[in-house]
Amino acid sequence: MDGDPRRGGPPDQARAMDQAQAAGQAQAVGQPEAVGARSDGPVGPAGAPRIVGVVWGLLVLNTLGSAGAKTIVPLPRSLIQMVTMGALVTAFALALALNPRLRIRPSAFLLLLTLLLVPSVISSLHLESGFGALFRCARLALFLGTLWLLSRWWNGSLTFVRTHIRLYFAVLGSAAAGLLISPGAAMPELYGGRLVGALWPLTPPQIGQYAAVVVGLTVLLVIGRQADRLSAAVIIVPSLVLLALTHTRTATLGLLIGLLLAIGSLVLTSAAARRFFVWAVLCAVVAAVGFASALRAWFLRGQSQENFSNLTGRAKVWDALLAAPRSTAEKLFGTGLSDKSFGGLPIDNSWLAVYHEQGLTGIALVAALLLVLGGVALLRPPSLPRACAIFLISYCAISSYTEAGLGDASSYLLHLAVAASLLAVPGTGTGTAPPRRAPAIPRRRVPRWAQERR
Q1: Dihedrals φ, ψ of 13, to 5°?
Q2: Are 5 and 445 a contacting pair, CB within 8 Å?
Q3: What pLDDT band is residue 13 in, cutting at 50, 70 and 90?
């Protein structure tokens, strides 16, 4: 006689029902997991192929650049450029193999970046910056093409966030390894004793940027209960130490302000965010009162007040760039993609670099890009993916004042691409579909005569 499968029925049916209910509860609650653990697949039941992470890693390698401090083992710049460009070509080929039917997701972010190619090519054809300008245009085109191919797997999940954290933490691991192997090479006097890459040529602002992004995203995963505290501490603590060793003020301010805005977007819906916000404010007040002199010395980095006020000489380069004579065409479309320098000195400002290379047209497109991402983030309901996107957008916006990269293939565009993937709506793009739920096992009806016998 068949009974209620939940009460005295066959054991196989009871076990099946319990397993289905447990799976449904796990999906609904979203249990905490390790930062590097594999999350739910972003597309369909099978999820994104693991090789998508490999493609993203190759893009990260391409944006590391070839300029920086002297490494322990001397690496010719030509060899580094071959490795980085080879990584980009390989990433595009793998992305094309993963998406041979060219299924892409409509994206205003990628559309604006693609439009940015127009002034880049127009200005680079004049060859005022040499043939390297056309080469950089081809690099930007391959970079954007790879992002378009990967956009198929953008649907608002945290998959790309976890991949982003793992990859940049690996880059930070190389900087830490260089510090352990040769402290003198990792903190040379040429950079004022700041941490640089001794195994791969990385500048202090680069290491500071990667550390700040890793810390910020990991903190948000912990607040959203998508990462356990132990694995998060293993990532956050070393990253904060490396950030402190770089003495990078822009990355530190970007981390603090970005986290403030991101956590503020969760305060009304998350008790964990409210607790973290209160403790963060208390710690900030204590640090400001008790360690004011130490914090001031850290921010000054031994510089004079005059040198600090003109942003370590950046203001002089900016004034010279703005005072340089330009034709109407150069004002509209720039002088072509270059190495982000003017008069042999780095520009270190995304807006002025875009103005110099892509003109007022480029500035309008980059501003529209940030406004679109920020506007979409504000319109989304409060959630962990929205908070991560707000952090990345605000960090890139703050860093744009003293760092270049918003107008060319760079790590900043990768950060914004992750933000765009977090703001995408599931099921609206080509080749995407909302995640499927496990089919529920119907409950068998118990006959009335069987109930009366009980």
Answers
A1: -65, -40
A2: no
A3: very low
- In this structure, of 136-145, 327-336, 399-408, 423-432, the range with the lowest mean pLDDT score is 423-432
Burial class (CB in 10 A: 0-12, 13-18, 19+), 135: middle
Cβ 160 vs Cβ 414: under 8 Å? no
Tokens of 296: 């001031």
d(CA 162, CA 221): 9
Residues 326-353: b if buried by 16+ CB within 10 A, e if exposed = eeeebebbbbbbbbbebeeebbbbbbbb
Question: At 217, which amino acid appears?
Answer: L
Q: Taking the model in full, what pTM does it have?
A: 0.83
- Cα distances from 27 to residues 33, 40, 159, 261, 269, in angstroms, run 13, 9, 15, 28, 19
d(C-alpha 94, C-alpha 55), whole Å: 7
- What is the separation, in whole angstroms, between the first and last Cα of the chain? 12
How confident is the model over 368-383, as pLDDT tens digits? 999 999 999 999 999 9
Residue 145 dihedral angles phi and psi, to the nearest 5°: -60, -40
Q: 425: buried, middle or exposed (CB in 10 Å: 19+, 13-18, 0-12)? A: middle
User: Which residue, 346, 350, 330, 326, is CA-closest to 403?
Assistant: 350
User: For position 45, what pLDDT does the model report?
Assistant: 32
User: In sequence order, what are the residues at sequence separation of 6 or more whose Cβ sits closer than 8 angstroms to the Cβ of residue 271?
Assistant: none
* Cα–Cα dist 147/108, whole Å: 13
pLDDT at 303 over 70: no
At residue 443, the pLDDT reads 64
Using the CB atoms, write b or e for 55-74: b if 16+ within 10 Å.
Answer: bbbbbbbbbbbbebbebeee
Residue with tokens 């040529």: 201
Please, where are the H alpha helices in 38-76?
Answer: 51-62
